[in-house]
């Protein structure tokens, strides 16, 4: 039996939702990951340190085991500069998330133009607080498959030119363009990569019919982009690290005329990464990507416990409870090839 033992990983991009929905999904992450960067796109969004700490307390109250949720603030056009110094004093709130207004689920309070948050970005640069970016333009005239590439050219480059020492994570990258830009830019620019963008391409949206549970943002891209992501994730370059973007939605919100974006990968996230790394014979690179580089970026100690994966197939349930509803996980009713002991 093939076994893989690694230092316990962390999830550097996670959606936990709130209330009963949160209570039904948080254990799926906590049984594998030691820490997670928790996204602030609740409705209403988490915009202050006080709200972030209250949200953190609600998460911890539902937990049966050790798990450290690290919080983020949702950047709006009106975020006061003073909030950034509060954040600096609070080590449980780690970063600020930039959603271009209208780019994705619950992003309507996001940033309409980055020049409007100049003062906040300046304070973040001075206080050395990471900026986490959903990197897609929202212009409806730009093809949905090009929105990440155009964001890099039109927004990210000028932003980084003006804030050269701001530490930035381009979240859930999906394109060869993003990989190339991150590899070659001199700035403090890093990226997270999801398991679904490593394992699927845009054909998976239309496999025998329309597949709402494969719809996420940024949307799945062509095979050449998947290959570039796989190369980046398995390269051992510490600029690329694990962030699942596990984003559960109730079945009723996915299987409908205008379905929500988001893929629920938490129940098998690490096994899915292992499968992707195995495709290119790079299982030896998984530990760095999953357990070291993200902690190093956030200047946190690496974990010390280990976990073990075994190569043994099991069937992913067709759905899980999600508050009063159900959520369909990635690979529902199909095989997962690795299992955590
Ligand atoms: C996320 C969600 O549902 O909150 N959806 C997604 O498709 N990734 C939001 C996000 O990270 O874009
Ligand atoms: Zn996300």
TrEMBL record:
<feature type="binding site">
    <location>
        <position position="15"/>
    </location>
    <ligand>
        <name>Zn(2+) 1</name>
    </ligand>
</feature>
<feature type="binding site">
    <location>
        <position position="245"/>
    </location>
    <ligand>
        <name>Zn(2+) 1</name>
    </ligand>
</feature>
<dbReference type="GO" id="GO:0006207">
    <property type="term" value="P:'de novo' pyrimidine nucleobase biosynthetic process"/>
</dbReference>
<dbReference type="GO" id="GO:0005829">
    <property type="term" value="C:cytosol"/>
</dbReference>
<protein>
    <recommendedName>
        <fullName>Dihydroorotase</fullName>
        <ecNumber>3.5.2.3</ecNumber>
    </recommendedName>
</protein>
<feature type="active site">
    <location>
        <position position="245"/>
    </location>
</feature>
<feature type="binding site">
    <location>
        <position position="41"/>
    </location>
    <ligand>
        <name>substrate</name>
    </ligand>
</feature>
<feature type="binding site">
    <location>
        <position position="249"/>
    </location>
    <ligand>
        <name>substrate</name>
    </ligand>
</feature>
<feature type="binding site">
    <location>
        <position position="261"/>
    </location>
    <ligand>
        <name>substrate</name>
    </ligand>
</feature>
<dbReference type="InterPro" id="IPR004721">
    <property type="entry name" value="DHOdimr"/>
</dbReference>
<feature type="binding site">
    <location>
        <position position="217"/>
    </location>
    <ligand>
        <name>substrate</name>
    </ligand>
</feature>
<feature type="binding site">
    <location>
        <begin position="15"/>
        <end position="17"/>
    </location>
    <ligand>
        <name>substrate</name>
    </ligand>
</feature>
<feature type="binding site" description="via carbamate group">
    <location>
        <position position="97"/>
    </location>
    <ligand>
        <name>Zn(2+) 2</name>
    </ligand>
</feature>
<comment type="subunit">
    <text>Homodimer.</text>
</comment>
<feature type="binding site" description="via carbamate group">
    <location>
        <position position="97"/>
    </location>
    <ligand>
        <name>Zn(2+) 1</name>
    </ligand>
</feature>
<feature type="domain" description="Amidohydrolase-related">
    <location>
        <begin position="11"/>
        <end position="314"/>
    </location>
</feature>
<comment type="similarity">
    <text>Belongs to the metallo-dependent hydrolases superfamily. DHOase family. Class II DHOase subfamily.</text>
</comment>
<feature type="binding site">
    <location>
        <position position="13"/>
    </location>
    <ligand>
        <name>Zn(2+) 1</name>
    </ligand>
</feature>
<keyword id="KW-0378">Hydrolase</keyword>
<feature type="binding site">
    <location>
        <position position="172"/>
    </location>
    <ligand>
        <name>Zn(2+) 2</name>
    </ligand>
</feature>
<dbReference type="InterPro" id="IPR006680">
    <property type="entry name" value="Amidohydro-rel"/>
</dbReference>
<dbReference type="GO" id="GO:0044205">
    <property type="term" value="P:'de novo' UMP biosynthetic process"/>
</dbReference>
<dbReference type="Pfam" id="PF01979">
    <property type="entry name" value="Amidohydro_1"/>
</dbReference>
<comment type="pathway">
    <text>Pyrimidine metabolism; UMP biosynthesis via de novo pathway; (S)-dihydroorotate from bicarbonate: step 3/3.</text>
</comment>
<feature type="binding site">
    <location>
        <position position="134"/>
    </location>
    <ligand>
        <name>substrate</name>
    </ligand>
</feature>
<keyword id="KW-0665">Pyrimidine biosynthesis</keyword>
<keyword id="KW-0862">Zinc</keyword>
<dbReference type="GO" id="GO:0004151">
    <property type="term" value="F:dihydroorotase activity"/>
</dbReference>
<feature type="binding site">
    <location>
        <position position="134"/>
    </location>
    <ligand>
        <name>Zn(2+) 2</name>
    </ligand>
</feature>
<dbReference type="InterPro" id="IPR032466">
    <property type="entry name" value="Metal_Hydrolase"/>
</dbReference>
<dbReference type="GO" id="GO:0008270">
    <property type="term" value="F:zinc ion binding"/>
</dbReference>
<dbReference type="InterPro" id="IPR002195">
    <property type="entry name" value="Dihydroorotase_CS"/>
</dbReference>
<comment type="function">
    <text>Catalyzes the reversible cyclization of carbamoyl aspartate to dihydroorotate.</text>
</comment>
<feature type="modified residue" description="N6-carboxylysine">
    <location>
        <position position="97"/>
    </location>
</feature>
<keyword id="KW-0479">Metal-binding</keyword>
